[in-house]
Specification:
mainly alpha, Multidrug-efflux Transporter Regulator, Chain: A, Domain 2, two-stranded antiparallel ribbon, 144 residues, 9% strand, 6 helices
């Protein structure tokens, strides 16, 4: 029969001789599996305690976290969600202005560039309405 022992994060940390913060860090780094359950109902089991004790023993023997990760057969680096978050945050960002010229036709102008004046924008919008009557729907009645 499966062991149904459940530990709160504080209990797991106390049994492992580490802080709650260390438990969270090990989970984030992929050295410990994610807790079971969701939200306030999350908990840790015997497999978490055994893994935590292994990690702590290896660390106390002078191994780096990368060496421990390799020894335990864990994939290097952070979990996919953390990597994705970091990749999104680190992407260069730019500001763009969007102007609808006609149904289905937009002008996108980088914030680094000046917008054409109102007269030129109106002329461009009129040209788009005449030459792109179907917009993006492909209902173009104009002759080529």
């Amino acid at each position: 029969m499966a062991d149904l022992t459940r530990y709160a994060i504080g209990d797991l940390a106390d049994l492992g001789g580490v802080s709650r913060r260390t438990v969270r860090y090990y989970v984030q780094e992929g050295l410990l599996p994610q807790p079971l359950g969701l939200g306030r109902g999350n908990h840790y089991g015997e497999e978490h305690l055994a893994q935590l004790l292994r990690v702590k023993a290896l660390q106390e023997s002078g191994r780096t976290l990368e060496e421990i990760r390799n020894e335990l057969g864990q994939k290097p680096g952070r979990p996919a969600a953390a990597l994705m978050h970091r990749a999104i945050v680190e992407q260069p960002r730019s500001l763009w202005r969007r102007i609808e010229l006609a149904p289905g036709v937009e002008l996108h102008v980088s914030a680094n560039n000046r917008l054409p004046g109102p007269v030129k924008l109106e002329a461009l919008a009129n040209w788009c309405r005449l030459n792109c009557p179907g917009g993006a729907n492909g209902e173009d009645d104009a002759e080529d």
